[in-house]
Amino acid sequence: MKIRVERDVLAEAVAWTARSIPARPGTLPQLSGILVKTGADGLTLSGFDYETSALVTVPADVADDGQVLVSGRLLADISRALPVKPVDISVDGAKLAVTCGSSRFSLQTMPVDDYPALPEMPAVAGTVDGQMFAAAVGQAVTAAGRDDMLPVLTGVKVEIEASTLSLLATDRFRLSLRELEWQPDQPDLTATALVPARVLAETARSLTAGGELSIALGSPGSGEGLIGFESTASGGNRRTTTRLIEGAFPNVRQLFPATSDITAQVDVAALIDSAKRVALVAGRNTPIRLTFTDGMVTLEAGNGEEAQASESLEATLSGGDISIGFNPTYLLDGLGAITGSHVHIAMTQPARPAAFASMSGTDASPDLDFRYLLMPLRMQG
Fold it and tell me: Which of 211, 236, 314, 367 falls between 20 and 30 A from 335, CA-CA?
């Protein structure tokens, strides 16, 4: 093997591939490696941990073909530290030589035969705007669970109904729903998939620098139990697959209230700033109290025996006064996912969930493409 590749192209490709390498490969040291391979399209790098695979192909000047398996973390560190000059890569016996300017590294290789074959990419189901999908995933994963004892809740449920793609997540205390348009290969396509939230978030961030993103879903006999993503927008051709979570995701869509007795509209940036300040005195598992009255919302936290805080903001209220308490972290997570200038909060009573949606202004209708449902906390007094 003998190739030359641009330093920035190599560093970005190696860093992206290394995201699929397990931090602790255990009894399978070969999984800590990146497979470096040449071909007609240039240089291909791949990584696999038996759950998530990553493969990227970038342009390179190939003098001699070949393939080699080397430590992914070490190659990533070296690639990132190289000077901004062309990089020459070649195999020297059982070592991989990396030369860039006056810098020269020699890496020990691992047996290629021990490296597992990457799963086949499932059939492409459709395409979606990459940046829009990345933003949508960022909103949806807000409510995903982090408790590995409840694996089903650590996933994002992807629901496909013709040209509508929905992303649902819940940790039992909150619920997010993001809907967006996409282009299915089959106009009447209906499908669901439960994707690990962490993998989906990382994939969305790393694959969507612009252009279209292809989404592939496994079918019987062809990658069953997998979802795949492919992008050719930047840094060469990139594709990744991940194994789906098994189990039944709870039927949570109907939890969003069809109607609400009380609605409020608040400047979201101001509400976030106030909530952050008031939350400084909120104890563990204690709420921030939001009291809505005509023209105002007052945030309060703490109690008489300890530190207390309160702050008031302008608010537009319809339907009567209400006082409701929320977990400060969950409240801030939901507000942080709001993209408009104002947040629309729909409530019924202090013990019932509140629904949050984005608004472009106080006179605008709420944007229901993204909704965040938050369970209130019981308040003392």
Answer: 211
